[in-house]
Specification:
Elements: E1 4-8, H1 16-29, E2 32-40, H2 54-75, E3 81-89, H3 91-101, E4 106-111, H4 116-122, H5 125-132, E5 137-141
Parallel strand pairs: 1-2, 1-4, 2-3, 4-5
């Protein structure tokens, strides 16, 4: 049923909630967990007053994405097959494209459970992936802080 599980991560603590679920699915179905992190190509601070140059932004985002993938791979048990992927782009678009184009059987993502104004202002990468992915998306609620 599941051969390849996509576990997107942004390096936040919310990802921890997804590791147990991805591990259970991988062990149950002898599946591979593909850990994906996206270096966000949108430099929201690329204005003269902000002072973050595009090359500095890109380097910082790539480093964050690499660390995010490394942390999840380290947390996954040794008996689970894994793959690592780091891509650049807009996170929800890259995740959806990867899920749709790479034979992903299920996406396991965290959700913060924001409501009201926070949800309206911040939006949700997970929500956009749920709406656009051709693969099923298992959402795991992040632990409340």
């Amino acid at each position: 049923m599941y051969d390849t599980i996509l576990l997107p991560t942004d390096g936040s603590d919310a990802t921890e909630a997804t590791i147990e679920h991805a591990t259970t699915l991988a062990r149950t179905y002898d599946a591979t967990v593909r850990v994906l992190s996206v270096a966000d190509s949108r430099n929201r601070f690329e204005t003269p007053s902000a002072g973050i140059a595009p090359d500095v932004w890109k380097e910082s985002e790539l480093e964050r994405a690499e660390h995010a993938v490394d942390a999840v791979l380290e947390a996954l048990p040794d008996d689970v097959a894994t793959e690592r992927v780091v891509e650049e782009g807009v996170p929800d678009s890259v995740i959806v494209d990867h899920a749709n184009d790479a034979d992903i059987d299920v996406v396991v993502m965290a959700t913060h459970g924001r409501t009201g104004l926070d949800h309206y202002l911040i939006g949700s990468v997970t929500e956009r992936v749920v709406r656009q992915s051709s693969a099923p998306v298992l959402t795991v609620r992040a632990a409340d802080e």
